[in-house]
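Rotation project, supervised by the postdoc (A.L.). Task for the rotation student: set up a whole-complex structure prediction and record inputs and outputs verbatim in this book. Inputs entered:
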Amino acid sequence: DVKVTQSSRYLVKRTGEKVFLECVQDMDHENMFWYRQDPGLGLRLIYFSYDVKMKEKGDIPEGYSVSREKKERFSLILESASTNQTSMYLCASSAAARAHGYTFGSGTRLTVV
Amino acid sequence: AQKVTQAQTEISVVEKEDVTLDCVYETRDTTYYLFWYKQPPSGELVFLIRRNSFDEQNEISGRYSWNFQKSTSSFNFTITASQVVDSAVYFCALSEGSNDYKLSFGAGTTVTVRA
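Outputs recorded:
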């Protein structure tokens, strides 16, 4: 069964901490994405990567960075967590083929206190 | 500007009722794809359907059906004879030909089916 795995289901971090959210996919997909989900706003794209070491900003990249050192792993980094980054974070991957659709992970619910 | 609008925030129905979820999209591309995803309480978004802009045929899959109308830029989703297991958040999404690896999501519609 193909999967996108997010390392943590729930995280609680303190303001100012550096936070790493990890995502691993086993489908050999080229594209990987990080979204955040907030009530009434749907899913908003933070960053995506279309190849190893390649990354592009999405719609709301401020306060975040990413790392993709290996094809299967895409990390989201909150350099200095703030309370407005409390949210559900969803990782997804897709093949390079046009509009193939995404496979999502189960999400990480991050609370910054 | 919002590219995908799901005007209904929440819908509550009794089991066996039909429920229709509205989705209106906005794009200048002639080639694009539309999607519906389901997010059950477990949190993982589940792919339901993908439709390309050149195929306006409606589709039925079991109790699910989709009505794509380019004239009104709508891609509505109907659940027939709803069941409690249909309770979830449903998202409509758009992928545009000019940027086709990126999905733009609507805000989602929460469907609650009561026994």
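Student's summary: Chain B touches chain A through 24 residues (CB under 8 Å).
Supervisor addendum: The longest strand of chain B covers residues 88-96.
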